[in-house]
Amino acid sequence: MDWRTTDLSDAHPEAETLPMVFRSFGGKTRFQGRVRTLKVFQDNALVRRVLEEEGGGQVLVVDGGGSLKTALLGGNLARLAWERG
């Protein structure tokens, strides 16, 4: 499928959007999937628990509360996410 954000927004005015504060780390310019959100603060234990489940193509969005003190996702968790889909 080739969806454009503008088309989706026009077709679904009730849909909410996120501010454009994301950076690309994976080299993909587009992706899609059901979104699952987490809010954590300086602890990635919940992120790990979620990533240990089968992903089914979901997109995990993690709100770290703005902290830059600790990493919430590194190479090991990225691999786990990739393996679980």
From TrEMBL:
What InterPro entries does its record include?
RraA/RraA-like, RraA/RraA-like_sf
Where along this sequence does the record place binding of substrate? Answer: 74-77
Q: Which SUPFAM superfamilies match?
A: RraA-like
Entry superkingdom:
Bacteria
Q: Gene3D superfamilies under this entry?
A: Ribonuclease E inhibitor RraA/RraA-like
A Pfam short name:
RraA-like
Q: Know the name of this protein?
A: Regulator of ribonuclease activity homolog
